[in-house]
Design brief:
Elements lengths: L2 H11 L3 E8 L15 E8 L15 H11 L8 E5 L2 E13 L5 H16 L16 E2 H10 L3 E14 L5 E5 L11 E2 L6 E5 L4 E4 L19
Length: about 230
């Protein structure tokens, strides 16, 4: 069977599944230096986001349903192939920036609007505005900067950086800060640690307001400054 065949089989059998992505030649012990595992096929299943859930939620399937899907798909997997059914990994993205508003008297309202606009832009759950794909995504600093600058209440955006927080084993996390760079280079694109991860925009981005026109360089974020 082809990867698309496995995906269709699961979607037809389990209507509560929203998306399935098949990764041939991979297993749950994925590491950067050993990307492929012959004889393994990994399938990531994504449930529907409930209507009352926000786009910052990280929906997961329970273990019982994962086992049901595993037993079902094992009927179609060749004897020399090991199938793995997993929930997606959620990698949290936070945007940090300084903006100059066209009407600073309404800063409270506009900063709240901007925070929600950035979250909607990053979220794959927001089908009308969502910028990121479910899998195989990339977050571009240039795209986010252009999006914020295009908002009719924003006069200027500067000091923009992106944080990516990804799980890295039990009780450990991998933190990437686009502002943490050598002087002669810059991290412009954020890519996932795991091929089967999904973007999870943080509920509260770090947005400051400044009325000056000076160019502000982003500063590296300390772990103590984060609120997840």
């Amino acid at each position: 069977l082809l990867p698309a065949d496995y995906e269709l089989l699961i979607l037809e059998q389990f209507p509560q599944i929203y998306k399935v992505k098949c990764f041939p030649g991979m297993n749950p012990d994925f590491v950067i230096k050993q990307r492929f595992s012959p004889g393994h096929v990994l399938m990531v299943v994504v449930p529907y986001l409930a209507q009352n859930e926000s786009v910052t939620q990280k929906p997961l399937l329970n273990g019982h349903l994962i086992t049901e899907i595993q037993d079902f798909i094992n009927q179609y997997v060749p004897p020399f192939v090991t199938a793995h059914i997993l929930n997606p990994v959620y990698e949290v993205i936070q945007v940090r920036c300084t903006v100059k508003l066209k009407n600073p008297l309404l800063a409270g309202m506009y900063l709240e609007h901007l925070n929600q606009a950035i979250t909607d832009f990053l979220s794959p759950w927001n089908e009308t505005v969502g910028y990121t794909r479910y899998f195989g995504w990339m977050v571009s600093k240039h795209d986010i900067e252009s999006f914020i600058q295009s908002l009719d209440y924003v006069d200027r955006v500067t000091n923009l950086s992106i944080l990516r927080i990804a799980p890295a084993g039990e009780d450990y996390f991998d933190l990437l800060d686009s502002a943490d760079k050598p002087e002669d280079s810059e991290v412009k694109d954020i890519i996932p640690v795991y091929p089967w991860s999904i973007v999870a925009p943080i509920k509260q981005h770090f947005i400051e307001m400044d009325d000056r026109y000076d160019l502000i360089e982003p500063q590296i974020t300390g772990i103590g400054e984060l609120e997840i």
